[in-house]
Model the fold of this input.
Amino acid sequence: MEDQRAWAIEKTLWIGNPASYPALMDPSCLIVIPAPPHILSADEALRGMAQAPRWSGVEFSDTRVERPKKGLIVLAYSVQANRADNADYRAYCTSTWQRKGHEDWRLVQHQQTPQASG
Done:
């Protein structure tokens, strides 16, 4: 997967339609977020994202891409996301994508560490 496509798919998880998430997330995916219960399985994350308020805008900075082995991409970045209700969120994130088939990439890991405010 080319870098540009990887970032476009990553952005989809922030501002896209939650109905598309099951096709992007591997059933064995683990997610770590700053809010309880903190560590989520793919099923738990999908249920939570379907109910959570959606981000209306997102910007990535300090982006890094690594390919530790064929069929594996690790993204690291700083994110600034906002919602229509003026909520603002800044975090450092990592996501790991694994190729499952031709042009079939699935999220296998995602982590968010909130940035200190101020």
